[in-house]
């Protein structure tokens, strides 16, 4: 058995379908580019049958991916499988991931199938998927509430029908590491053709055991782990990519396995998904939380000053956390700027580069010290920029202890410049009211979240603002950053409104 663990990332499928995590096409492409660049082996780009939007995003990721295998989910139905195959056509390497439940409770109540009928469906649908690609993954949904005997029969059937990866999902987050060890040990013992497929584990974090279960699966024979950045996903989320990858790296003495992940890109991927979705990870989140590398206790700090190894099991640099190095200033030229972006993991096309470079020069004029995090914030607002039919022309805000809080705002909406004056309960209220008055259709949305955070330290830090809107049940995030908090707020609100139409209409969801 190989020592390589295949990292299968489902941030764009299982992650994206959880509340508040919706992404538009451009955001998915940016995330997929990051995953591909950091060495993810398989990117599950979506569920092609779910909606036209999902189909298009699977297709676009398939077209874009340079190294990763691109995968689409498909239920055990020919139409789903055909749709997945169609979306994956442009991929260098495409994978169809089809699934059906194997647990008695799901078979009886949800699928209304006997075990024998389920086996027939598995045989038929896996063989059908193989007509389109040599790379077919089959998942036993709710595997961890399935009997060992039936799970082994189902898996053997799927492999005989041509499945090349067999995934064992802990769909409801119920299993303990001991259960996982037993499941995989049983499969190794009782599945005759076990060595004809790669075995995979897909964990959920309902009991906080996602990572522990993934490691147990690896120790018992799994060679693929399904996971998401920051552990986003249904309910309590999925196994976190960064936790499994760093556990394997840091504890190589116990776990002699490799992944292809360039771990220095973990922090950037984590921040990107936070900035796209507006969902920050908790400060004490393993690997990527704000405090994950902060040493507060005096004894620990004293030890750290003498030798970092006293209290640090991995370096912040190993996950790409730079210590906010002062990097660039207003005299930095194009070449140095491009090199710096490359070092941070961004390779931009010429137009995008010129746009970011111009904004960098503006920022360097306003802000003396430009840090790595500032540069990352500058690059990331290009999320959603392609669909802006609304742009900010100018704004003036009056606020303070005396008189009314007032804003004078000019926006360009669908090519036409409109101006308005508006009062409100505080400058943000006045500003948002003014924007709503100028943008048609905004009355159909409801503000759910307004969040501001400082990108770096200091009073001249850029403010990164997230605005979340509810548009007829679909949650939409807008993000922007600027040294002026109110300008960033206006841009984030505009960014969200510009996305409203493209993000509606999600029809089918799964819980694999
Ligand atoms: Zn799942």
Q: What can be said about this structure in brief?
A:
The protein contains 17 helices and 16 strands.
Number of helices: 17
Level-1 CATH class name of the largest domain: Alpha Beta
Into which percent range does the helicity of residues fall? 25-40%
Chain-averaged pLDDT? 89
What fraction of residues sit in β-strands? 15-25%
Major sheet: 8 strands, parallel, barrel
Going by CATH, the architecture of the largest domain would be Alpha-Beta Barrel
- How many angstroms separate the termini? 27 Å
Classify the secondary structure makeup into a structural class: alpha/beta
Strand order, biggest sheet?
A: 1-2-3-4-5-6-7-8
- Tally of separate domains: 4
In total, the number of strands is 16
Low-confidence stretches: 382-386, 502-512
**Which fold does the CATH topology of the largest domain refer to?**
TIM Barrel
Rg (CA only): 24 Å
Outline: globular
CATH superfamily assignment of the largest domain? Answer: Aldolase class I
- Distinct ligand kinds: zinc ion
């Amino acid at each position: 058995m190989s020592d390589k663990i295949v990292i299968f990332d489902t941030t764009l499928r299982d992650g994206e379908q959880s509340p508040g995590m919706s992404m538009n096409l451009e955001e998915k492409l940016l995330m997929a580019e990051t995953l591909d660049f950091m060495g993810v082996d398989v990117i599950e780009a979506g569920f092609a049958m779910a909606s036209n939007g999902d189909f298009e995003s699977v297709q676009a990721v398939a077209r874009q991916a340079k190294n990763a295998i691109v995968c689409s989910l498909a239920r055990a139905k020919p139409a789903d499988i055909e749709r997945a195959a169609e979306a994956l056509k442009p991929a260098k390497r495409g994978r169809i991931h089809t699934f059906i439940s194997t647990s008695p409770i799901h078979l009886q109540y949800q699928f209304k199938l006997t075990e024998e009928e389920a086996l027939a469906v598995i045989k038929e649908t896996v063989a059908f998927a193989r007509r389109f690609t040599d790379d077919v993954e089959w998942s036993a949904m709710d595997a961890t509430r399935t009997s060992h005997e039936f799970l082994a029969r189902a898996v053997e059937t799927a492999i005989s029908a041509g499945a090349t990866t067999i995934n064992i999902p802990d769909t409801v987050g119920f299993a303990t590491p001991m259960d996982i060890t037993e499941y995989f040990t049983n499969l190794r013992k009782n599945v005759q053709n076990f060595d004809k497929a790669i075995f995979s584990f897909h964990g959920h974090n309902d009991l906080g055991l996602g990572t522990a279960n993934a490691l147990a699966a690896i120790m018992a024979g799994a060679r693929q782990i399904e996971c998401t950045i920051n552990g986003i996903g249904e309910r309590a989320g999925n196994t976190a990519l960064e936790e499994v990858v760093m556990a394997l790296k840091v504890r190589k003495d116990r776990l002699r396995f490799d992944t292809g992940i360039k771990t220095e890109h973990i922090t950037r991927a984590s921040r990107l998904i936070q900035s796209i979705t507006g969902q920050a990870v908790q400060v004490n989140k393993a690997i990527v939380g704000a405090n994950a590398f902060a040493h507060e206790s005096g004894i620990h700090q004293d030890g750290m000053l003498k030798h970092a190894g006293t209290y640090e099991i991995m370096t912040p640099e190993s996950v790409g956390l730079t210590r906010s190095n002062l990097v660039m200033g207003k005299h930095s030229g194009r070449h140095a700027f491009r090199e710096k972006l490359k070092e941070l993991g961004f390779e931009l096309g010429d137009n995008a580069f010129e746009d970011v470079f111009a904004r960098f020069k503006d920022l360097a004029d306003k802000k003396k010290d430009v840090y790595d995090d500032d540069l990352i914030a500058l690059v990331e607002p290009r999320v959603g920029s392609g669909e802006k039919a609304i742009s900010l022309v100018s704004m003036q805000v009056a606020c303070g202890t005396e008189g009314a809080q007032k804003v004078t705002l000019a926006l360009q909406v669908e090519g036409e410049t409109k101006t308005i004056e508006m009062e409100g309960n505080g400058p943000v209220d006045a500003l948002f009211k003014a924007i709503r008055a100028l943008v048609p259709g905004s009355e159909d949305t409801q503000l759910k979240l307004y969040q501001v955070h400082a990108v770096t330290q200091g009073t001249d830090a850029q403010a990164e603002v997230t605005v979340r809107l509810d548009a007829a049940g679909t949650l939409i995030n807008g993000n922007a950053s600027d040294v002026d908090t109110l300008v960033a707020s206006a841009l984030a609100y505009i960014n969200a409104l510009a996305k409203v139409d493209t993000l509606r209409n999600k029809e089918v969801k799964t819980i694999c």
